[in-house]
Amino acid sequence: MKILVFAHRLELGGTQTNAIELAATVRDQFGHDVVLFAAPGPAVALAEQKGLRLIEAPDAQSHPSPAVMRALRAAVRTERPDLIHVWDWPQCFDAYYGEHLLRGVPILCTMMGMVVPRFLPRHLTTTFGTRQLVDEARAMRAGRVELLEPPVDTDFNAPGAVDSAPFRAKFGLDDGKLNLVTVSRLTEWLKLESLQRSIAAVDLLAEDLPVRLVLVGEGTAAERVGELANRVNDRHGTDVVVMTGGMIDPRPAYDCADLMLGMGGSALRSLAFAKPIVVLGERGFSLPYDETSAGYFGQWGYYGLGTGDLSAEPLAEQIRPLLLDPDRRAELGAFGRSVVTEHYGLAPAARGVERLYREVAAAKVSRSTALREGVRTAALLAGRRLPEPLKNNLRGKGFAPRKTAPEGAVR
Question: Could you tell me which residues belong to the region Disordered (predicted)?
């Protein structure tokens, strides 16, 4: 088979890593011809390491994008794929209105966000990253819905897989302090709140514990995060928060951690390194990963929505006992590693995706269904720009997107 993987802009992020690693594994395990189509960014280096051929896409700010659709049309003409695997809804729109609706090219959609977008065409086979989202999507979508949890290469990400000594030396991390580590995109969307709470929590902990926070990542919120980190460092007269910038290969950062803070795919890679972790989310959510919370995260994903309390004290008090108990940290690390190797391996994820490729490519889609769903999606997208009173009226008639979780719900 020939598969065109249509990914996000290749920033340093979990979804980009998932798309690249899965594409390379499907190629290597099953011999398919896999080509990557995406706007270039720092993660191009990872695609090159995996030997994936990249067709560069325009870097659009809104979707559907005529420029991206034209570039995709040219790529499809040249490559003649049996299927396009699109990662997340912006790419779905760009592929849908040209290649799928007009030319009948099969599409598999993968959604790694933490909501079920109601404006997606409902007949498309779609994967979601948590069991709860799969259940929610199946209740509202006519098309096939499958589970694709963020996969982890548990050989590449493993204790002892990398020498972290040069990283420790470069950033002065061998002075006896305990290292809290976060590997994350530094962006306003989804991430900024938890980054700010993490810095505030280490600010509190550093009053009486030898601890620092190591932030690994880059993004649009880097300046805001850096300003907050500088204020904390100035207050303590030492580097309580160390910002390393982005890393194509962040494994040394995982390896040097005494305790991780994070969410999503980064949380799973933390567990693959046998590191204990406090999982973060939005609206003040934080919860240590342990034997009692593993079932929750298995159902809802490695993320959550809290009650709206954004104070740092709850997070600091979850971190404190773990910093004081190295034996407990070792126990939790071993437990997390066992869960990831059993349930989140890259090889089984690739087998499931390859099966979906074959089935989606072979399925026939009614042109009238595709047209009807395309019109519905266009109407919903237009409705998102309407005044709120009119949107509320449309929601009551089932035409506009609703919120997928009540206020204060844990996600």
Answer: 392-411
Mean pLDDT per block of 10 residues along the chain (411 residues) reads 96 92 97 98 95 96 92 97 96 94 95 91 96 95 94 95 97 96 94 97 98 97 98 97 96 98 96 98 97 96 95 98 98 98 94 97 90 92 58 42 36 30
pTM > 0.90: yes or no: no
Fill in the amino acid letter for 271: L
Residue ranges of domains in the chain, CATH in brackets: 2-151+346-396 (3.40.50.2000), 165-343 (3.40.50.2000)
Nearest to residue 274, comparing CAs of 285, 260, 262, 291? 260
CB 294 within 8 A of CB 231: no
Q: Are strands 125-128 and 145-147 parallel, antiparallel or unpaired?
A: parallel
Coil, strand or helix: which one is 152?
Answer: strand
92/84 Cα distance (integer angstroms): 10
